[in-house]
Amino acid sequence: MADVVLTAGDVPGYVAGRPTLRGLVDADTLTVTEVGDGNLNLVFICVDAAGRRVVLKQALPYVRLVGPEWPMTELRAAREASALTVHGALSEHVCRLLDFDEEHNVLVLEDLSDHEVFRTRLNAGGAHDGIVERLSEYVADVAFGTSFLKLTEEEFRLRAAAAANPELCAISEALVFTEPFLGAERNSVRPSVAPLLAALQADAAWVAAALEMKRAFLTQQEMLVHGDLHTGSVFVRGSGDGVSVKAFDSEFACYAPIGFDLGMLWANLVFAGMRAAVLGDDARADALFGSVETSWRVFAARFAAHWPERRDPAGYPDVFLDGWLTAILRDCFGFAGCEAARRTVGLAKVSDVETLDDAPYTAAASAMLRLSRTLLVGRAALGAEDVAGLCRKALGAAG
């Protein structure tokens, strides 16, 4: 456990005491601002008189969203530092790690204050062109680069073991795969949606499908996933060809199915689309619903482009690729279905829906729950091109 929990007033002295940081910013002229909007950690933005900037992120010994009554290992900081290093070597679309203080569980990150959180932009009706494509390339690059195709089988197993993240995975196992489907005190929806939720929780097919995805998450190691890739864990600047996209907050990283990160991302894009739809912007909604198909097309093409780089072409012939991509797509739908439910029902909800007035909230939340069932139960028969129509069908059923 770290012996020091930093405050904004402590940060200049902390910076002065670390040679690496002294080379990045001037501790004597430092202005420090705490941005306490995260669920788990302390985050400080540091700016010196010359305008040089860094971000300090310190892991607390508990879940900040809940408080000290939910203890949490500080080792997550080391795991995040490792994931950032691995992902950053494979993709440019990752927040850069500048330093890591293992003793005090502090990560020093590039400052992205000139960017905005992707969810914030989407909620405000901002542009999203080019962003989904870059994120899909990021997942493909990391998926291939951390897989058994690129690594030797022995190295793959050793890396997977080293990336074990049981405490953070336990949060995902509870909040993503269990509580929304089996019920929990931490669940909540507004009264207008409660009857639909009760009906779904009594639906054996929906529950069983979610638990199948939990089994896959627990047992299927394919890549070093980000582990929490949603629109709130991505910084963006600009749009189109000039867009800058940076994934951050990868402390949930572990080896898991390739479809996990994409599924999480897809569900959150659909949440943004549902928000647009119930607020009357049909063109924007359709574009966001259609971004799932775009994401899959870009991911599959990028992953296939890496195929010639595989370490053992004779051991993994071309015929293997098509079958694997089919399995990945099926997993994407299942994980998206779980995320659609948990962000509607569970502890960590999304502002896309929660900030809506009651009538649009009811329409959006109901549609997400109906879509969750369709994606989970029907995942084996779906194509990426089906998603936009399924979103519209779920909205229609929601009234």
Number of strands: 12
Ranges where pLDDT stays below 50 over 5 or more residues in a row are: none
Trace the largest sheet across and list its strands.
1-2-3-7-6
Helix content: 40-55%
Beta-strand fraction estimate: 5-15%
* Topology order in helix (H) and strand (E) letters: HHEEEEEHEEEHHHHHHHEEEEHHHHHH
Shape: globular
Task: Give a short account of the largest sheet.
Answer: 5 strands, antiparallel
Q: If you compute it from the alpha carbons, what radius of gyration comes out, rounded to the nearest whole angstrom?
A: 21 Å
Cα end-to-end separation: 51 Å
- Which structural class do the helices and strands define? alpha+beta
Mean pLDDT: 95
Number of H- or I-type helical stretches: 16
Summarize the structure.
With 399 residues, this protein is an alpha+beta fold. Helix content is 50%, strand content 13%.
Features:
single chain; 399 residues; alpha+beta; five-stranded antiparallel beta sheet; three-stranded antiparallel beta sheet; 50% helix
Q: What does this molecule look like?
A:
- The protein is 50% helix and 13% strand.
- It is built from 16 helices and twelve strands.
- It has helices at 11-16, 19-22, 76-90, 118-123, 131-145, 153-162, 166-175, 179-182, 194-201, 204-219, 259-278, 282-306, 319-345, 351-354, 358-377, 387-397; strands at residues 31-34, 41-47, 53-59, 62-63, 67-71, 97-101, 106-110, 116-117, 223-225, 234-237, 244-247, 254-256.
- The strands form four sheets. Strands 1-2-3-7-6 form a five-stranded antiparallel β-sheet, with helices on one face.
- Strand 10 and strand 11 (244-247) form a beta hairpin.
- The longest helix has 27 residues, at 319-345.
- The protein starts with 10 loop residues before the first helix and ends with a helix.
